[in-house]
Amino acid sequence: MFMVGLLAVAGCQRDRGGEPIVVQLPGAAQPGDGQALLAASRTITVSGDAEIFTAPDRFEMVVAFDLQTDTLDKARDESRQRAAALLDVVTRHGIPACDVQTDQLSLQPRYDGNYGQAQRLIGYQASRSLTLTLHEIDKVEALLFDMLAAGANRIDRVSFHSSLLQEKRAEARVLAVKAAREKAAAMAAELGQTIAEPLRIDEGAAPSPWQAPPISNYVMNNDTPAHVGETMATGKISVHAGVSVVFRLQGA
Fold first, then answer.
1. Selection from 160, 132, 136, 159 nearest residue 146 by Cα
2. Same domain membership, residue 226 and residue 189
3. Which end of the chain has a smaller Cβ tally under 10 Å, C or N?
4. Percentages helix, strand, coil for the chain, rounded to the nearest 5?
C-alpha cells in the first residue's frame, strides 16, 4: 500500500512549469485497493458447542467429624482415636492408600461471649475430614454407613466423576469445531458466499454450574453404561466444549 502526497517547494513549482511534485510513500492505498480491503474484511464469526454424556467411574466422598471437649488433651486424644477408627474402616473396605487423603485437620479453642468483648475459654474443638475415592457405585452406601458408625458425624460431599474426562472433552472439542464449520457454511450459503480458511479460533470457558446449560449443536450419549443398583444410580455426567471461529468469506 502507498501514500500519495503533494510537496510544494518554494520557487520550484514555477521552475517545473507549475506541476506539483508527487511522492509515493509506503503504507497508503492504491487505486483498486478498496476492493481488496473489502474482500479481506469479509468474515463470519460463529460459535460451536458439543456435549458428551458418559457414565461416571469414580465416586468421591468427603466424610468428617467435629468434637468438643473441655481440655486440650482430651480434644487431641479423642480426635486421634476417632481418626484411627475411620482409617480402620478404610482398611476393612480394601481402599488403596492412593484413594484416601486427610484434607482438613483443626484443633482450636472455644470461647463464650461476642468478639471484641471479654471472652472466657470454655473448651476446645477438633475437626478432621477424609476424602475417599471408590470405583464401584455399589460400595458407596456401605462405606458411608460404616464411617458414620465409626465416629464420622458429617458427610460433606458425594460426587461422581469420570477418569476419561480429558479424552471425552477432546472429543467434544472436535465436535464443537465441526459444528462451527457447518453453521458457518450454511449461513454463508444463504448469502451467496462460501467459507474459506479460518482466521481465528477461541475455546470457550466451561459453563458455570450456576448458569443455564448451553444449547449444544451436537449432543452425544456414548456407549458407557449407566448403573442402577438396589439403592443408587450413577446416571451420566455431561462433558461440554465450546469454540468460537472466525472464517474468511469468499464468493460462491
1. 132
2. yes
3. C
4. 30, 40, 30
Parallel/antiparallel/unpaired status of strands 154-161 and 193-203:
unpaired
Between CA 182 and CA 226 the distance in angstroms is: 31
Task: Please identify which residue in the block is written with the cell numbers 458425624.
Answer: 153
Q: CA 134 to CA 89: how far, in whole Å?
A: 13
Q: Are residues 168 and 50 in the same domain?
A: yes
Predicted structure pTM score: 0.64
Q: Which of 129, 161, 193 is the last residue of a domain?
A: 161
Contact indicator for 100, 19 with CB cutoff of 8 Å = no
Indicate whether 91 and 115 sit together in one domain.
yes
Q: Using one digit for the tens of pLDDT, what is the confidence trace for 42-97?
A: 899 999 999 999 999 999 999 999 999 999 999 999 999 999 999 999 999 999 99
- What is the pLDDT confidence band of residue 119, given thresholds at 50, 70 and 90? confident
Q: Provide the residue count of the chain.
A: 252
Where in the sequence is the domain holding 249, given as residue range(s)? Answer: 43-56+163-252
Same domain, 180 and 234: yes
* Number of domains the chain is built from: 3
Domain boundary among 137, 161, 185: 161
Residue 24: pLDDT over 70 = no
* Percent of the residues in the chain that have a pLDDT greater than 90, as a whole number: 58
